[in-house]
Amino acid sequence: MHTHTCFTCDQFLLPPPIPRHQGEALAKTINRTAAMLDNNTNGNVAMNPSESVETLPKEFEPYEMASPLVLEEHGVLSENRVKNREIVLGRNVQSSCYAIKEPEADDDITGDREAYMASVLSRYRTSLIERTKHHLGYPYNLDFDYGALSQLQHFSINNLGDPFIESNYGVHSRQFEVGVLDWFARLWELKKNEYWGYITNCGTEGNLHGILVGREVFPEGILYASRESHYSVFKAARMYRMECIKVGTLISGEIDCADFETKLLINKEKPAIVNVNIGTTVKGAVDDLDMVIETLQKCGFSNRFYIHCDGALFGLMIPFVKRAPKVTFKKPIDSVSVSGHKFVGCPMPCGVQITRLKNINFLSRDIEYLASRDATIMGSRNGHAPIFLWYTLNLKGYRGFQKEVQKCLRNAHYLKDRLLGAGISAMLNELSSTVVFERPKDEEFVKRWQLACEGNIAHVVVMPNVTIEKLDFFLVELIHGRCRWYEDGETKPPCLAADVGAENCRCAAHKKLGSSASLQ
Amino acid sequence: MHTHTCFTCDQFLLPPPIPRHQGEALAKTINRTAAMLDNNTNGNVAMNPSESVETLPKEFEPYEMASPLVLEEHGVLSENRVKNREIVLGRNVQSSCYAIKEPEADDDITGDREAYMASVLSRYRTSLIERTKHHLGYPYNLDFDYGALSQLQHFSINNLGDPFIESNYGVHSRQFEVGVLDWFARLWELKKNEYWGYITNCGTEGNLHGILVGREVFPEGILYASRESHYSVFKAARMYRMECIKVGTLISGEIDCADFETKLLINKEKPAIVNVNIGTTVKGAVDDLDMVIETLQKCGFSNRFYIHCDGALFGLMIPFVKRAPKVTFKKPIDSVSVSGHKFVGCPMPCGVQITRLKNINFLSRDIEYLASRDATIMGSRNGHAPIFLWYTLNLKGYRGFQKEVQKCLRNAHYLKDRLLGAGISAMLNELSSTVVFERPKDEEFVKRWQLACEGNIAHVVVMPNVTIEKLDFFLVELIHGRCRWYEDGETKPPCLAADVGAENCRCAAHKKLGSSASLQ
């Protein structure tokens, strides 16, 4: 066993050795991944950047048009502007796709088509297994087994419209959906006859819904959200043409209530619609709900505010974290959204939206415009998602989730301690399982572990499927990687004091501060 | 075999006899359904209308709050108003749900939990089979077999963000998504390097996206949509705070371009954002795209308009209908949306959105607010849906869809002829497979066949899974039903002249007109 001599690592740290078989497995995995990525540009995979419209089979050729239509004059873009934007949004980043090929007449006989599709799917499945294994950056619980539900994949299950009002379409799963909603309403302490909600397609839909309800309740309201809120919050403001004020944050990522107060006082005449983060996207910071409410009341907004809680990840974890400020409808909050594919785990994105029944009625008051029962953002709604959620909630129950939350928090602490111990800047919010740390210098490494990055920081979200073993594996790779990345001694790891606080920073300047703090 | 003597049927009509075994099967099905509905209120299914919050297990009890918080003063609803709305949106309509029960400590040992869940799922599956069999009202193709894809249900596949820019989350299906998008871009004749698009969650998301892009291109634009447009179009206007003008329709359900012209001329100073229906929800009417463009140009809007085509159902069918006006980006249209769960068939709702690349850049110009690559409505996106679509498109190809469209149109004509022949008011738009007819008087019948109704009319949407045999089965039930519903001779079938035109109406007043017209 060797001690590290690389200057980026603490002298006395002994990283766990990579057992021979693990080292081999690692090398194999890397090779396999590379091979698979190579495969992706071979044989059955078509390259994308074609310049012209492929012609359709002859019988589908466009009809000759009677008069040539004006195409180029339409629209008002200046060419320059378009070109600039195309760099950001252009197609050039996507290098490959599985093209759809028109079947040959004799495909049924030769079986070629079937064989082609089966081979694409089988290679795809292999890559999914590998990608699922090396995943740490997104807050998705990848540990689920819905085998018992595969029988339902044969049905077109659609909960179109309101969960509480049956439409005539009979192939739905409202009975499961309402069961799930009841469970969440109970978790967040809102009576059955006082709540309304639905299963959404994702966290964004929850935020779009919560903020829209807020705007309908207070049409002149200003939207306040900390600058570390999810981008969908600001997208909502833009979509809905709402005035939106960004509030500063503390180093932890929490909303800065002093700044909030200042901004409220400047805009006292208009009601406040507030997005409260129950776990920010990057740092997993939990806004202090009680202090937000206190600030609103102190500034004279006592009955002129609407609070939407964006609990995408943490909405489901926080009820089980001891000493955490409680998210409950016994406080004057108006809506809570949480993602279903994050902590619960689900094959496809989904979410749960719970709001006060009295508020939802604002959304559908204008029946001249809307079908009277339309109170959801989407019309047709995935009927499978509620069954997945129902299945897991039934299986685990409140107690099961509590155990998993505790495990995640423990493992997150382990990761943070190991990172700091290895001389890598890192931070973990007390109520969170999101470990923020120095962004790995190698983009291939970032991609391999599917880390979400912002500026100089990256994060690992410790979900129930993230075991100590997996974390160790990751740590070994990271520590070894850093030795290589910084071996020339010229480039140095970045200072993260502004991102995670000086006490959590292990850059050359703050290293000693951190070590002495941890010795105290 | 008997001829009908009931006055609602034409004298000379011989309805196909119900073969004995079919009649028995029908009776059995009805009984089975009834039994199942009964079951739904038994045993494992909890009744919903509880009055209070059930308490959580003790360890999850809410913390005592330091100071009581103001609940009742929050919000500005008057009590009366709430009560009125609760009738529309209240929970009372939903009678049952599969409650989620907290697992007992010994569940693992007794196997009770597993048995409970399995029994719920098995009963649910039986009801899905029955409900899938008796379904005619919604435009969902229920005929699919994705058995080969069930292996993928174990993965949390998420195409978060832009389809053309890979995020760091590796468990995605962009390579399938782009294949599907390419196929549709080719169908609608937009070059690969000139289009942008994504797989949406449903038709509504497509409309929300198309109209939002339109508003970003023309921030002062007025939204024009025929009054028979899908409700999501008007919801978009309200969400986006856009001025919206409803345009009248012809009896067929198509947009009335004379009315459109009048309304355009009143608002010449503002650009026009136009929703063109490629198949309206109720009547399946296809707006005349060419005439809409002509009207815009005639009124001087030559380069100040944005056209979104809502092709939820028919966007995929119309390319294969001979003599249909072509939906193509060679005309000055800006976006087209189509649903994936409708004509293609998919276990969960989804859709395809195709728009001009140059337009999409407007949506993301404001990078201060948005992550620079965010151009979709939703953030996390279902990665399974693109694979389902990819699978079916590959299997069927353009030719396969053409055959299915032709079959649907033939079967729709058959149904319309049989209805009119039986003296039942009915209409079928030339380019459509949506048969509109007299609303069945018995709501149980409507529910049994899952018919979508509006006012005096109902419709059947003839999808690829709707066979002549199924239509015959339905017709027999409908004709027999009508004999009963109108047997007293006092109530008479409603006049549908205003809905389907006098020539398609078979009410007492218009009966002769229709018969003589059909003799000519």
Task: List strands and helices in order, with pairings.
The structure is a homodimer of 520-residue chains.
Chain A: H1 20-39, E1 46-47, H2 79-89, E2 96-97, H3 107-110, H4 112-133, H5 174-187, E3 195-200, H6 203-217, E4 222-226, H7 231-239, E5 244-247, H8 257-266, E6 272-277, H9 289-298, E7 305-310, E8 335-339, H10 341-345, E9 351-356, H11 357-363, H12 384-421, E10 426-428, E11 434-438, H13 443-448, E12 452-454, E13 457-461, H14 468-485, H15 497-500, H16 511-519
Parallel strand pairs in A: 4-5, 4-6, 6-7, 7-8
Antiparallel strand pairs in A: 1-2, 3-9, 8-9, 10-11, 11-13, 12-13
Helix pairs in contact in A: 5-12, 6-7, 6-11, 8-9, 12-14
GO molecular function, one term (chains A, B): carboxy-lyase activity
Modified residues (N6-(pyridoxal phosphate)lysine) (chains A, B): 342
Family (chains A, B): Belongs to the group II decarboxylase family.
Descriptive report:
- 2 copies of one chain form a homodimer.
- Chain A has helices at 20-39, 79-89, 107-110, 112-133, 174-187, 203-217, 231-239, 257-266, 289-298, 341-345, 357-363, 384-421, 443-448, 468-485, 497-500, 511-519; strands spanning 46-47, 96-97, 195-200, 222-226, 244-247, 272-277, 305-310, 335-339, 351-356, 426-428, 434-438, 452-454, 457-461.
- By secondary structure, chain A is α/β, with parallel strands linked by helices.
- In chain A, the strands form 3 sheets. Chain A has a 7-stranded mixed β-sheet with strand order 3-9-8-7-6-4-5, with helices on both faces.
- In chain A, helix 7 (231-239) links the parallel strand 4 and strand 5 (244-247).
- In chain A, helix 6 (203-217) crosses helix 11.
- The first copy, chain A, is globular, with a radius of gyration of 26 Å.
- Residues 1-51, 61-92 and 365-372 of chain A have low confidence and may be disordered.
- Chains A and B meet through helix 2, strand 2, helix 4, helix 5 and helix 6 of A and helix 2, strand 2, helix 4, helix 5 and helix 6 of B.
- Chains A, B: Its cofactor is pyridoxal 5'-phosphate.
- Chains A, B: Keywords: Decarboxylase, Lyase, Pyridoxal phosphate.
- Chains A, B: It holds the Pfam family Pyridoxal_deC.
- Chains A, B: One of its GO terms (molecular function) is carboxy-lyase activity.
